[in-house]
Write a structure and sequence with these properties.
The protein is α+β, with helices and mostly antiparallel strands and about 160 residues long. It folds into 2 domains: about 60 residues, no CATH class; about 70 residues, Multidrug-efflux Transporter Regulator, Chain: A, Domain 2, CATH 1.10.1660. About 50% of the residues lie in helices and about 15% in strands. The strands form 2 sheets. The protein has a 3-stranded antiparallel beta sheet with strand order 3-5-4. Strands 1-2 form a two-stranded antiparallel ribbon. The radius of gyration is 21 Å and the shape is extended.
Length: about 160
């Protein structure tokens, strides 16, 4: 099973210089057309040497996303989807109380496993649940919006 825990994952908050550099890189990269291939070649240079490496396209796409977020001044966290969370970590991620989250587990809305007396929840399962409830909320809001327009409530 996973060897990482949520405590191993720290947000990376960019400095002002890193934000400026990320904006410059993001501007260059967003203007380029990348043919969807299996990898992208990147040349790394320092004062003494130069080396060209092939980077998987999916990793390169992730790098572009991280740079775009950094360009906006946002802190970024990269987390493996197989990482296991504690009930408190998962509750914090969903912005709910731990007792409420435990009820979600007990009603089998989110899968988990027990390690001794502790519950362990996969990050990907928590995020799948979040996507599902966000979609349900969006549908309710769309229905409310339609109803208010039908009733000419002016919202």
């Amino acid at each position: 099973m996973p060897t990482h825990s949520i405590s191993d994952v720290k947000p990376l908050a960019p400095s002002e210089n890193e934000i400026k550099l990320a904006r410059k890189l993001n501007s260059v990269l967003s203007g380029m057309s990348f043919k969807k291939s299996k990898s992208i070649s990147i040349t790394l240079k320092d004062n003494e040497s130069q080396r060209t490496l092939d980077v998987p396209f999916s990793a390169f796409r992730s790098l572009i996303f991280v740079l775009a977020q950094m360009a906006e001044g946002n802190a970024v966290t990269i987390m493996p989807v197989h990482i296991e969370l504690t009930t408190q970590d998962a509750a914090d991620l969903l912005n709910v109380s731990r007792p409420y989250f435990v009820k979600l587990l007990e009603t089998k809305k989110i899968p988990f496993r027990k390690v001794g007396t502790r519950r362990k929840i996969l990050f990907q399962d928590v995020m799948s649940y979040k996507v599902k409830i966000d979609e349900a909320r969006r549908k309710v809001l769309d229905n409310l919006s339609e109803e208010s327009q039908k009733l000419h409530l002016g919202y």
